[in-house]
Write a structure and sequence with these properties.
Elements: E1 5-8, H1 16-26, E2 30-35, H2 38-42, E3 50-51, H3 59-69, E4 74-78, H4 83-94, E5 98-104, E6 111-116, H5 129-136, H6 152-173, H7 185-197, H8 199-214, E7 224-228, H9 235-238, H10 246-260, E8 266-270, H11 281-291, E9 298-301, H12 306-312, E10 315-318, H13 323-329, E11 334-336, H14 353-358, H15 365-379, E12 380-382, H16 388-403, H17 425-430
Parallel strand pairs: 1-2, 1-4, 2-3, 4-5, 7-8, 7-10, 8-9, 10-11
Antiparallel strand pairs: 5-6, 6-12
Organism: Xaviernesmea oryzae
Protein name: Capsular polysaccharide export protein
Length: about 425
Amino acid sequence: MKSRTFLFLQGPASPFLRLLAEAIEKKGASVKKIGVCLGDLVFWWPRESDFFRDRNDKWPAYLECYIRDHNITDIVMLGDGRRTHAAAADIGIRGGLRVHILEHGYLRPDWLTVEPDGMSAHSRFPQEPREIEALAAGKPAVPSGSLYRSSFLTYALYDLAFHIPNVVLGWLVHPHYRTHGPVHPLVEYSGWIRKGLTAGKRRREAEKAVAAALAPSPDGNANFFLFPLQLPGDYQIRRHAPGGDLFRLADAAIASFARHAPAGSRLLFKVHPIDNGLSRWSDRIGKTARRHGVAGRVFVADGGDTDALIQKSRGVVTVNSTVGLTALAAGKPVIALGSAIYDVPGLTFQESLAAFWQRPSAPDPALFDAFMRALAATTQVRGGFIGREAISAGVEHVAERLMETEDRLPLAFRKPRDPVSFRYEKELFSGINPR
């Protein structure tokens, strides 16, 4: 077998990538690393790393030369949304390299994604039922349940360890680097501090909002739709959603709800569990709901049990959140407004959002079972980026997957990395109903 040399780019804010490099080397491959900020080196130490300090427009030429000079065969990176990673995926695919995208798992909890080429609109995973069923043939059922303990404190400390060196010394060491997040880390931390100080108030307001949304309709049943919000700065929103703007999408969903949803129905937005509070969702959504005359039917909850809310809802509206998979597993109707790996005929609602409010339809359980078995067998491994046990398991499973010589998703399923078009863009932003 040809000797393989893996190039690691940015990874999660944890020791995961360094330990993964060690595991891959034990399996006989070589590993190189390019850092683009001091935070990258914090979790890579004491291993050696090359360092890119130039302007963004110099990155593609630098990377092409690096790949050639070091005989790189594989590229490994966390997600394919960051500017450097998107360029690296393009360069790697064009050059015939194997490109591996790591991310938190599509399945939750305690899974990791190891996917060729890219995610969402760039994923090789098929969206034709027959191809999914073929991939699922003979594959085992997907185990459920949590395996590893998680700690938000550990996550927060790792995040600080990544960002503080960049804030304190980045202006001197890498002046051209810009954080991949939408706001400066200090601004984000200020949001977390405020959120912590208002925890009691937020909990009470969430309970009130959930109670209002779940108030029984005349037939005695809950009559509400759930919209689980994602993080506005998430690349799943910025690159794989209509307009790349979650605020516009929420506004458009409220406008559609006001025009087309049955008079007695309600819409509940649930804030993402690790939203830092800077989005001011309650204020934004409340203002939009008042403008469209549905203030008494649209609610926002910064808290609550997502699984319980899914079970009681009429259906789930999402952009491309993994909560969509949870809802499908519960047999609930789901519409995905952006590029989602599970946006498959027979699983998600394929007509307009206007029609979804009126006649949401449940997924095909047999197709969903096949989808889950195919997804787990081709793109998922057990493990996590945070916590000793989760990292240890994840490192071993990811290393095994990276070292495989046969693709689990064939090249025939590769999608072009062209600009993405979105089925619901005209309806959401032009008021046009396609069907």
